[in-house]
Amino acid sequence: MEIIRIGIEDAERIAPLVAAFRVQLKAYKGIRSRPNGEAGREEILEFINAGFPVFAAAEDGALAGYLVCRIDAPCLWVEQLFVREECRRKGAASMLFAKAEELAASMGENTVYNYVHPNNEGMIRFLRAKGYTVLNLIEIRKAYEGEKLTAKIRVEKEVFDY
Fold first, then answer.
1. Cβ atoms of 59 and 3 closer than 8 Å
2. Single pTM value for the model
3. Longest dimension (CA), the chain
4. How many CA atoms lie within 13 A of 141 on its CB side?
5. Three-state SS letters, the chain
């Protein structure tokens, strides 16, 4: 497996992975959806055109997964890390994440910042195994109209709907 830099010319090739990532994110909130390849293509083009480093794990010409980083000096954020289900647990995510850590190190930083959906248990376990254990940010918002919140989360003395 090799890690390759993704450019504009690769947008069509990587779009299905971005679309699958969006379906997975919606599923964490109980929303069923279908992959939208055109939306995936547009999303990845926005990242590339904005100068975000984008990489993919490729094996025998097929893309197994991808990584989108955002540089907000001095921080490097992992915006998206996704590996196709049939390619998981074969090292693709670790190789992609190592690329993010390599970029951060090249900037003189010793950590990568990660946005993770609270229901994404696989990614949370992955990050913990890599030594990422510090909770850095909490996103708080009002409930959407008609949204059904079914759980509570405690942070220190505060309780939030989820």
1. no
2. 0.88
3. 51
4. 7
5. CEEEECCHHHHHHHHHHHHHHHHHHHHCCCCCCCCCHHHHHHHHHHHHHCCCCEEEEEECCEEEEEEEEEEECCEEEEEEEEECHHHCCCCHHHHHHHHHHHHHHHCCCCCCEECCCCCCHHHHHHHHHCCCCCCCCCCCCCCCCCCCCCCEEEECCEEEEC
In this structure, what are the phi and psi dihedrals at residue 146, rounded to the nearest 5 degrees? Answer: 85, 0
* Sequential pLDDT tens for the chain (162 residues): 999 999 999 999 999 999 999 999 889 888 899 999 999 999 999 999 999 999 999 998 899 999 999 999 999 999 999 999 999 999 999 999 999 999 999 999 999 999 888 888 999 999 999 999 998 888 889 988 888 888 888 888 999 988
